[in-house]
Amino acid sequence: MMRTSELGHPRRQVGLLQLGVMFFTLMTAFIHIYLAVQPGEELRTWFILNGIGYIVLLISLFLPQLAAYHRPLCYTLIAYTALTIILWFIFGQPSDAIGFATKGIELILIGLLILESRRPYAGSKESPSLPVH
User: Fold this and answer.
1) Whether pTM exceeds 0.85
2) Would you call 6 exposed, middle or buried from its count of C-beta atoms within 10 A (0-12, 13-18, 19+)?
3) What is the C-alpha to C-alpha distance for residues 51 and 47, in angstroms, rounded to an integer?
4) For 10, which DSSP code?
5) pLDDT per residue as tens digits for the range 15-48
6) b/e for 47-57, b at 16 or more Cβ within 10 A?
7) 83-111 per-position pLDDT tens digit
8) d(C-alpha 70, C-alpha 116), whole Å
9) Which of 62, 50, 37 lies closest to 102, judged by CA?
10) How far apart are CA 48 and CA 90, in angstroms?
């Protein structure tokens, strides 16, 4: 039996994989926001937007109203994270320790998102638990 919220939207149980996605997404979001508030940071606006983007995508990924789009949202967050890594090599300082740590976090996040994208999500079109009309 599928659980639903009071509004009738499918509810997903949160396991270790989902907690890992949440943890590593929030870590990289907060690191980017932290970097944005450092004095003299030239990429301040980009760091703020990047941090906000991670938070918005994370919320979207687990929002019950968007359950039908869970897999595309996983792929979007994977692409967003990969783009962040690529742009770091282009515009960042690849000799910076916090940068390497953040890229490690982002690589772990990509791995977790790949695993998450392969799991059926209650309420998605590919979920076998929903009746087909």
Assistant:
1) no
2) exposed
3) 6
4) B
5) 999 999 999 999 999 999 999 999 998 889 999 9
6) bbebbebbbeb
7) 999 999 998 877 789 999 999 999 999 99
8) 9
9) 50
10) 18
Q: Are 82 and 125 in contact (CB under 8 A)?
A: no
Q: Mean pLDDT across the chain, nearest whole number?
A: 86
What does the block give as tokens for 15?
């396991």
Alpha-carbon distance of 124 to 70, in angstroms, equals 7
Nearest to 35 by CA among 44, 22, 27, 26: 44
State residue 51's pLDDT score: 98
Q: Which two tokens stand for residue 72?
A: 């595309």
Choose among 49, 23, 21: nearest CA to 35: 49
> Could you tell me the two tokens for 76?
């979007």
Q: Which amino acid is at 59?
A: I
Is the confidence at residue 11, as pLDDT, over 90?
Answer: no
